[in-house]
alcohol dehydrogenase (NADP(+)) (Edaphochlamys debaryana), 289 residues
Amino acid sequence: MLAQPSSRALAAHRRPSPSGPASAAAPSAPRPCRCRACRPGSGLGRAGALRVTAFREDTAAAQPPLKTEEQRRMAQGQGQGQEGFAEGQRQRLSRRGWAVRERKAPLAVWSHTLGELGPQEVDIRVTHNGLCHTDLHMRDDDWGVSKFPFIPGHEVVGEVVGVGSAVPASLRPGSRVGVGWIANSCRSCLACLRGEENVCEKGYTGLIVGGNHGGFQEVLRVTSDFLYSIPDALGSEDAAPLLCAGITVYAPLKRHMARPGMAVAVLGVGGLGHLALQVGGGEGGGGGV
Ligand SMILES: [Zn+2]
Ligand SMILES: [Zn+2]
Ligand SMILES: [Zn+2]
């Protein structure tokens, strides 16, 4: 979906509650996702987001597994002096994912290396990711804003594995969070101040636009106030498609279904339409927003 609705609807989830735990609070224990796809022995999710199974599922830490004892020593900076330390740093900050290397090319495993985690940034171990048609538009550079290679995926759910020094205390390793299409904005224009970053006057930053990398990777780095806490009652596989397809239909329904019982027509019951019917209260509308 190129034209994004307001993200205001989800804004309540964006900024961690000021009544959250104080900074002195102990980090909360990792909370496993309870959705069907995450239960032991299950394969892919029944619908919506696919569970990310392409890589090791038991990677508790942010870095990919190291292969040899020598590499482990190097990562710890013990083996080869400055050179070994640099190699260790490179591995620690290396990220592996499925990338589109050139226009219309199929996804291929690809690695890139990040800098150190910034004060406002969060690393998320991706567990679930929806597939949106926009990922395909971006793959094919249909809108002229793709830059290759890039890692698609912008309906992302995962577990926080790293937090920058200035990230609010309510976001800690183990927090289950989601990321959608918008990764950043100017935060100072009138639109941003209204909570409508999707029409930021300076242009928002798209998660997978212009060479930025999305959720089809093991660990995704994002700015902390553009991610959403996932409520305990919502399974990750159900949450992921809401982060683009869901908000795209939710926002206009929320804004325009002003009266209880108001009918709404959904043209096309596809990826978005079937969510619109659920959000809108089912057959005949019903003002369920
Ligand atoms: Zn799950
Ligand atoms: Zn999308
Ligand atoms: Zn702005």
Summary: The mean pLDDT is 78. The chain is about 20% helix and 15% strand. The beta strands are 50-51, 94-100, 107-113, 121-129, 156-163, 176-179, 182-184, 205-206, 219-223, 228-229. Residues 244-289 form one domain.
